[in-house]
Design goal:
It contains two helices and 28 strands. By secondary structure, the protein is mainly beta. It has two domains: 30 residues; 277 residues, 7 Propeller (Methylamine Dehydrogenase, Chain H), CATH 2.130.10.
């Protein structure tokens, strides 16, 4: 090959490689969030929406006044039903709510650490299932319930996603990450050993309850989606046999802990006992996309500066450090995507849409504002 042909070949190769690089960047950055609507909930109390029922067009959530009140909201933002369900009555419960959501039939499921209760859309009591969980956990606020049916039998995970539960420090390798209850047999069973996670060899026993499960149910494909607080993969679990059927690799934009040879409790940096490190937060599933939300670390000097501005500042509450990653058909298709300004991801909606609660501290309104975004 003469010099001219060799030069031409090299230039073509460089152009070809450059095109591949550009195409890859375009492909992995193609996801966008476009605001397409608003929901104004008529309430002076803080409101959180947990789930949406596509048949009744109703939202399920709660508001905090002097007590936690379960609420049903219509598509216009009106609270059409609300009740304090905690109490000693025959249709009430005495424990805190750990999770809630709509069933496939549109009924409302309310879960506590020892009961699963069913209500209709008017929050009238229908049924209750009592169960015992082998592992205690701490509840801070209700999350979305993981409930599904298989061969007409109902199953649910006994503990909430995104919260610590009792993982044995003395025998970390034998601890399981999910406890599932079968309503028909009245028995529970555990799956997913910590030792089966690909990151297991990096996990030190000292992490204890800082290492916790994060999961969601893929109602479209009948799978459980699972990751953990410190993890670089998402497991897809077949509910027919409760085995991992596939794994989705996660490439975080900023999660330095995962690069360490060993992750110990001393690596979880904090200031005044407030964490400033990265952690996965939640998994959501739309018709076509898996959505992972995670928290990036905040530099210590910035954290201290923010504490000077506000003593109540919390890293995990700051939307600037929350990032979304999108996946499609088992592949990551986006880099880190920032949340809308003042937005907090709260629920998924039909048609590959997501709902954000908007909390602008500089504006006082007589309603609670949510924005609806289309995933494109």
């Amino acid at each position: 090959m003469n010099n001219k042909l060799l030069l031409k070949f090299n230039l073509n190769l460089i152009v070809f490689i450059g095109l591949i690089f550009l195409t890859t960047n375009i492909c992995i950055s193609q996801i966008t969030l476009k605001k397409i609507g608003e929901l104004k909930v008529n309430s002076l109390d803080p409101v959180k929406i947990i789930d949406f029922d596509s048949n009744s067009k109703k939202y399920l959530g709660y508001k905090n006044s002097s007590e936690l009140i379960v609420i049903i909201i219509d598509s216009e933002g009106n609270i059409v039903s609300e009740k304090n369900l905690k109490g000693e009555g025959p249709s009430q419960f005495t424990s805190e709510i750990s999770s809630m959501g709509f069933s496939d039939s549109g009924q409302i499921l309310i879960q506590t650490p020892n009961e699963l209760l069913t209500y209709d859309l008017n929050l009238e009591f229908k049924d209750r299932v009592k169960y015992g969980s082998t592992n205690p956990f701490t509840i801070y606020s209700p999350t979305n319930i993981l409930y599904f049916k298989k061969n007409s039998d109902a199953y649910f995970v006994t503990h909430p996603t995104g919260f610590s539960w009792s993982i044995s420090i003395n025998d970390f390798s034998k601890s399981n990450l999910l406890e599932i209850y079968n309503v028909a047999t009245k028995n529970s069973f555990e799956i997913l050993k910590v030792s089966d996670r690909s990151i297991f060899n990096k996990l030190d026993n000292s992490l204890g309850q800082s290492y916790y499960p994060i999961f969601s149910y893929d109602n479209f494909n009948k799978n459980i989606l699972f990751t953990s607080s410190f993890d670089n993969e998402i497991s897809v679990i077949d509910v027919d046999n409760f085995k991992i059927k596939s794994t989705i690799q996660v490439n975080h934009g900023s999660f330095d802990l995962l690069d360490d040879a060993k992750i110990t409790s001393s690596d979880l940096e904090s200031v005044n006992r407030k964490g400033i490190y990265s952690t996965n937060l939640r998994l959501l599933k739309t018709e076509d996309y898996v959505v992972l939300e995670y928290l990036t670390e905040i530099p210590e000097h910035i954290f201290r500066a923010k504490l000077e501005e506000s003593k109540s500042y919390k890293h995990y509450m700051d939307g600037e450090y929350h990032k979304l990653i999108f996946f499609h058909e088992g592949n990551q298709i986006s880099r880190d995507i920032s949340l809308p300004k003042f937005g907090k991801l709260t629920a998924v909606l039909p048609g590959n849409k997501v709902l954000f609660r908007i909390e602008n501290p500089d504006i006082e309104e007589d309603f609670i504002l949510f924005h609806i975004y289309q995933i494109n």
